[in-house]
Predict the 3D structure of the following.
Amino acid sequence: MYAIVEISGKQFKVSESNLLKVPVQNAEANEILQFKNVMLLDNEGKISIGTPFIKNALVTATVVEHGRDRKVIVFKKKRRKDYKVKRGHRQGFTKIRIESISSGKVKASEETAAAAKKSPAAAEDGKKTEKE
C-alpha cells in the first residue's frame, strides 16, 4: 500500500515505515502528525485518485528529528564587470516516519448512510431557510 501525499506544498510517495525528509514542520520530536491531503492511494492494486484530494484518507507520521541539509552554493557573476558573489544556504528539514495509511472507507460509508436517512424534502426546506 502506498499513497501520494502533499506535505507543505510538495508531493511525496509514501508507504508504511518509510523515513522521509520533508520541509520543516512545527512539531517536536516523537510527536504525531496527520496529513489529510492524500492525492492518490494504491491499496493492493485498487487505485483511488482524488479530485484533488481523497475524502477521509489520512496518513499518520511520527517526527524523528529536525536538521539542516547540505549547503547549496549560490554563485553569481557578471563577466567583464568585476562582479562575483558567493553565498551558501542550508535548508531545514524534518525527518518523519510514516506509521499508517488509512483510506477512510468506513467513515465514508457512515456519512452516506446518514445522508440517506435525511429526506430530500427536509433538505430543501433547510436550504430555503438558510437563504432567508
Q: What stands out?
A: The beta strands are 2-7, 10-15, 19-23, 32-35, 38-43, 46-49, 58-78, 83-102. The longest strand covers residues 58-78.
